Amino acid sequence: MKNFTKQYEIAKQNANEFMRKGQITQYFEALLEMNKYKRLMVAVVAN
Fold first, then answer.
1. Residue 23 falls in which region: left (phi positive, over 0), alpha (psi -120 to 50) or beta
2. Which one of 19, 31, 40, 41 is separated from 5 by 20 to 30 angstroms, measured CA to CA?
């Protein structure tokens, strides 16, 4: 769980940086990565 949280926070920081730089494609990829880790965290908590 700690690993998923850490990876989620890294993806969040990357998304913010990409948005700041105007790199839209990489921003959306980082958002998808954030979504993946958020779903994994929810699944771990549910079990």
1. beta
2. 19
